[in-house]
Design brief:
The protein is an alpha/beta fold and about 400 residues long. About 45% of the residues lie in helices and about 15% in strands. The protein has a 7-stranded parallel sheet, with helices on both faces. Strands 9-8-10-11 form a 4-stranded mixed sheet, covered by helices on one side. The radius of gyration is 20 Å and the shape is globular.
């Protein structure tokens, strides 16, 4: 395989750290040209010393002096600020960019990579949720490839290779059900932060762990799948699959169903995202079918997990609604993680913000960014009012 020069955006998170492992396992294939992080300069510097990129960037400008000090004498260029992250995403001489930045902050760097015609290995749901139509249009305009890294969308991507959209009957997004699958909703208000973040199958960052607990991750994945695969929302379903062996499935119009299966390890979709259409060996064990024993499936409970229905609702509404859904969710999850609101208020505030939003049907990028900002402010007003009134109005 021809050597690939890659940039990893969000290298200190769980996806980014796994990407570093992939690059180190295949040093003859991957040259890491750039790394970025939000503010964890200690891990970022350690990674830079291991893989020796040309450039590193930290989005928090207050951390640049510490980062530069840790990399003194290495010859690695050190930059800071959101604009530096965007510049790293669009740097010269790069073949593929892994977008593993959490949340809406990934949108502009992802667009920067797309506009340079790169292969964009997309491990971020929020960019397609916010601006799926723009991302698709820009990728077509600049000849960029968007290869999903999210395990569910990577699975569908693999099942769909060589098939036309009109051959698809259903996309079946599987989900483990998250840490609260077997816990009655009546207990939600008594759960500890640790219980909510304790995913049974995946080791993830706090934001996506909360999204898994609310099942907002599946709500966002519905919107993402709609844009990635050009399939109507009515043809996208969610199935709970606790064993997390089947990562997603596609049913075709002739009744055939293709499923992508594999061990539960994000290095597989990360590696494929960076090497597609080629594949490389991994050091991971093969899937033990006998050891698995059985595969089970359940329907999600919309009353217990209303955030899943918010995803369908925003996807069907379109326009700025998905951006508002995403922004309200990010704001609420952040507030929960900071101890500002209880877990059970996340869905209620999102519902209130989404219900009051006046949708722009054909938004430009500026409209989406404005809707994002307004939704965050609106969410903040709701929980501020709740502290005074004792409930979401």
């Amino acid at each position: 395989m021809v050597k690939k020069r890659i940039v990893i955006l969000g290298s200190t998170g769980s996806i980014g750290q796994n990407a570093i492992k992939v690059a180190e396992e295949h040093r003859r294939v991957f040259e890491v040209a750039g790394l970025t992080a939000q503010n964890n300069v200690e891990i970022l510097a350690q990674q830079a010393l291991r893989v020796r990129p040309r450039r590193v960037a930290v989005s928090d400008k207050s951390k640049v002096r510490a980062l530069a000090g840790l990399l003194t004498g290495t010859g690695i260029q050190v930059d800071a600020g959101p604009e530096a992250v965007e510049q790293t995403a669009a740097m010269d001489g790069v073949d593929a960019v892994l977008v593993a930045i959490a949340g809406a902050a990934a949108l502009l760097p992802a667009l920067g990579a797309i506009r340079r015609g790169r292969t964009v290995a997309l491990a971020n749901k929020e960019t397609m949720v916010m601006a799926g139509a723009i991302m698709r249009a820009e990728a077509e305009k600049y000849g960029a490839a968007i290869v999903p890294v999210d395990s569910e969308h990577s699975a569908i991507f693999q099942c769909l290779e060589g098939r036309r959209p009109e051959q698809i009957k259903r996309l079946l997004l599987t989900g483990s059900g998250g840490p609260l699958r077997t816990i009655p909703s009546e207990r939600f208000d008594r759960l500890t932060r640790a219980e909510i973040l304790n995913h049974p199958r995946w080791k993830m960052g706090p934001k996506i762990s909360v999204d898994s607990a609310t099942m907002m991750n599946k709500g966002l994945e519905i919107i993402e799948a709609r844009w990635l695969f050009d399939v109507p929302v009515s043809q996208i379903e969610v199935v709970i699959h606790p064993e997390a062996v089947i990562h997603s499935m596609v049913e075709f119009i002739d009744g055939a169903v293709l499923a992508q299966m594999g061990v539960t390890d994000m290095r597989i979709p990360i590696q494929l995202g960076l090497t597609h259409p080629d594949r490389l060996s991994t050091s991971l064990p093969s899937l033990d079918f006998v050891g698995i024993g059985q595969l089970t499936f359940q329907r999600p409970d919309p009353a217990k997990f209303p955030c899943l229905q918010f995803g369908y609702r925003a996807a069907q509404t379109g326009g700025t609604a998905p951006a508002v859904l995403n922004a309200a969710n990010e704001a609420c999850v952040g507030a929960f993680l900071e101890g500002e609101i209880p877990f059970t208020r996340i869905a209620k505030v999102i519902d209130a913000v989404l219900s009051r939003h006046r949708v722009v049907a054909q938004p430009a990028l500026a409209d989406l960014l404005e809707a994002d900002a307004q939704a965050r402010q609106e969410a903040g007003r709701f929980w501020a009012a709740e502290k005074v009134a004792g409930g979401v109005s």
